[in-house]
Amino acid sequence: MKALNEKEIKALVMASLDARSLAYTPYSHYKVGAALLTREGRILQGGNIENASYGATNCAERTVFFKAISEGERDFAAIAIAGGMEGEEPTDYAYPCGICRQVIKEFCRDDFQIIVVKNAKEYQLYTLEDLLPHGFGGESIR
Length: 142
Ligand code: THU
Description:
There is one protein chain. Helices cover about 25% and strands about 25% of the residues. It is α+β, with helices and mostly antiparallel strands. Strands 2-1-3-4-5 form a 5-stranded mixed sheet. Helix 3 links the parallel strand 3 and strand 4 (about 115). The protein starts with 5 loop residues before the first helix and ends in an 11-residue tail after the last helix. The structure holds tetrahydrodeoxyuridine. Tetrahydrodeoxyuridine binds near residues 28, 30, 97 and 100. Tetrahydrodeoxyuridine (THU) binds near residues 28, 30, 32, 50 and 96.
């Protein structure tokens, strides 16, 4: 897949920071925003959605993937993720949890880009393969 350009990276980083405002977090008060770029150039946003039964909580990454899939999107280029406490700018990088890495694996190839964001100027670029090496995918059971 062709590498993202600076403009695409910047737009995704800003959209992930902005998406933190969409999070529903009455329990942890930890707001995560995710911005997903399709290969056609559409950016979708999602936040984490918590539940009084904590295990029913949905991470921001899965929210944005499920939004996109349920709208018919299937080809993805990159996701940016930003997380931090409510009312503050993030103070650290928020890496995707293991379940979200596995959900990304379902829909993306190994070269899918994952941008882990601290702020508008500080972010790290990974591929899915970097964060989920030797992952389990559908090709194993078809
Ligand atoms: N969270 C995410 O949204 N993404 C992750 O990858 C890790 C954790 C959310 C879930 C929960 O609402 C809060 O962060 C604290 O775990």
